[in-house]
Design brief:
single chain, mainly beta, five-stranded mixed beta sheet
């Protein structure tokens, strides 16, 4: 979990404000030109790693903690993925890994550099990635399609964006389940409220993602001898941005919170770590939990007894 947390927290620090002074129009355009333009490609050279599969894990520029399988380029050792949104120079927002989950190998977080689109890992004798070298690969520009976020579970509703690049005379369409295809240009945002398969097609390019609706998690706690404000701090699970949220008081020391997705939880008296006091967490039988930051999964209904830590 520490590895995942470092990745997710890094995502929160990926942006910095850039102030452009009074310069000529051409210079301003040069400063703001993306290092990777929407519709371009990122390549991964699997020669040294020899992974059976390659996944692109990203948390920004269209992605929301997504593990996207990369496509192999012909019979080569190279894998590719389409960049759905412009990415500025210096952005650190992705890594590569060998499995969809975290049970395999992975690279460190990777940074985008202008003029570079190919990432080649260097590995040690155990196959662990020690560094990644960047280079440039020339390729023929073709029609490309993409969907972000990638196939995910969701609660309530989810916004999904479909993309088509370099379409030329081809007509791009998206199709939700078995409904009639709908033509679009460039990109289109869809709001899904039920389990759906989205398919995007333009010319010979096509891709599909399935979005599965699941239930919220409901957390109820009883804090004996406490009736003040209570907050829940969530992290991990599918929390891209960890943080505090107020719990609803039901009176007499009982509180509830509806968790949209899954996360580890900590219960506190305030929403600021400088002043917050943590509650000890017990199960329904008043047995102290061994894990004081339990993982609550989407669809769970859990009840905890709490007391303030001394």
């Amino acid at each position: 979990m520490k590895k995942i947390m470092s990745i997710l927290l890094t995502a929160l620090m990926a942006f910095s404000a850039i102030t452009v002074g009074a310069v000529s129009a051409s210079a301003a355009e040069e400063d703001t030109a993306p290092a990777l333009a929407a519709g371009s490609k990122i390549f991964f050279d699997n020669t040294n790693t020899k992974w059976e599969e390659v996944y692109f894990y990203a948390w920004n520029y269209g992605y929301f903690a997504d593990s996207v399988p990369m496509e192999k380029v012909g019979d080569s050792n190279v894998y590719e993925i389409v960049v759905p949104q412009d990415v500025p120079d210096g952005a650190e927002y992705f890594l590569f890994k060998s499995k969809a989950d975290w049970s395999g190998k992975q690279t460190p977080n990777q940074t985008v550099e202008t003029g570079k689109n190919t990432y080649t890992p260097v590995v040690d004798e155990d196959g662990n990635v020690t560094s990644v070298t960047l280079s440039s690969t020339d390729y023929t520009v073709e029609t490309e399609v993409a969907i972000t976020p990638y196939s995910k579970s969701f609660t309530g509703s989810i916004n999904v964006t479909v993309y088509a690049f370099n379409t030329g005379d081809a007509t791009a369409t998206y199709q939700i389940n078995n409904n009639a295809p709908v033509a679009f240009t460039g990109s289109e945002e869809l709001l899904l409220t039920e389990t759906s398969t989205v398919t995007v097609t333009a010319g010979t390019a096509t891709t599909s993602c399935t979005f599965t609706k699941i239930s919220d998690a409901v957390i109820t706690v009883m804090a004996t001898g406490y009736t003040g404000d209570m907050y829940v701090y969530t992290y991990g699970g599918d929390r891209v941005a960890p943080g505090f949220a107020p719990m609803e008081s039901l009176g007499d020391g009982m509180y509830t919170y509806t968790l949209n997705g899954s996360a580890h939880v900590i219960f506190t008296t305030t929403n600021d770590w400088a002043t917050a006091k943590k509650f000890l967490i017990y199960d329904e039988n008043n047995v102290l939990l061994a894990d004081q930051e339990p993982l609550v999964n989407a669809g769970d209904t859990v009840t905890y007894n709490l007391s303030l830590a001394q």
